[in-house]
Amino acid sequence: MCSSSGLLSAILLGYCLHLLQLLSTCLAFSLVASVGTWMGAVSNWSIFIWCFCFLVTLVILIIEFCGLQSRFPFSWYNFLITYACYAALLCISASIVYPITYIWFFPRGRSQDHAIAATAFSCIASVAYASEVAWARTWVWLGVITGYMVTVPGLLKGLETFVAGIIFAFVIDSHLYLHQPALVWCVAVYSICFLLAAAALLLNWCDCDNRLPIAFPTFLLGLTLLSVLLYTSALVLWPLYQFDEQFGGQPERSSCNDGLIYSVCTWDQQLAVAILTAINLLIYVVDLVFSAHMVFSRTEDQLRSSQFPLLYKS
């Protein structure tokens, strides 16, 4: 009885969070669009984030109201957690980038007020999506969901792909790296590690993790270890060839003539990629520690069960 009432409470709270997410993202992009306070790539990206989150959340809400979750060939609850994690990160990035880049440059008045209000609703959406991820722990406790995405390594995998996506946004201009083979290798590292992490998530979504010739935690440990080694090489090579004069780099920031607020200077892009590379390497290291702990704990349990079979059967 307590379990069924707890499950009903979890479902109702999920609906409330979805409605809050819909309302906040809708108001965020509506406020900006109503006065035309967007211009340039950064603002367009923020608008895209709010619209994308609104549409996907609306589709999710319709599917849940119609009870169509079971018709999808993947774990619906794992998909919800993964999407909520990405949506929270995307809205957080929009809540930071949009006001820093635009609000302070608007004259006081209706445009600035709308931009401030849009930022506030973007922050509310971030909290709503993050609350859904946190509430997933309750789903685990109730036994509604199990799987990789409710573990710390699963959430870290989502964070790794998110940071890689931001890196791709900064290296979209090929002139940043095509002049040096070492920098091309760095971009290849970002792409390879992104694909490996995405493959791990897709295997879990499609419930194909048990079809691998090796245990899924061991598979993840190998992927994470490889990614740590690759990112270590990128962390060394990218700053070396971008900021060391001996390797053709530019150690200091020169005056930026790319525009006042609607574009990012080349040197700033290079620095951002270096910082994000270090951040993602740290995330991969933490992921490696948790993955290794999962594998070794599983191996230890198997050894104990083989040594004391009667004890474990009882």
The N- and C-terminal alpha carbons lie at a distance of 28 Å
Q: The biggest beta sheet, please?
A: none
Q: Rg from C-alpha positions? A: 23 Å
**Average predicted confidence as pLDDT:** 81
| Number of E-type strands | 0
- What order do the SSEs take from the amino end to the carboxyl end, as H and E? HHHHHHHHH
Low-confidence stretches: none
Beta-strand fraction estimate: under 5%
What structural class do helix, strand and pairing data support?
mainly alpha
Q: Per the principal axes of the C-alpha atoms, what is the gross shape? A: flat
Helix content: over 70%
Number of helices: 9
Short description:
With 314 residues, the chain is mostly helical. 76% of the residues lie in helices and 0% in strands. The chain crosses the membrane at residues 47-68, 80-104, 116-136, 148-170, 182-206, 218-241, 271-296.
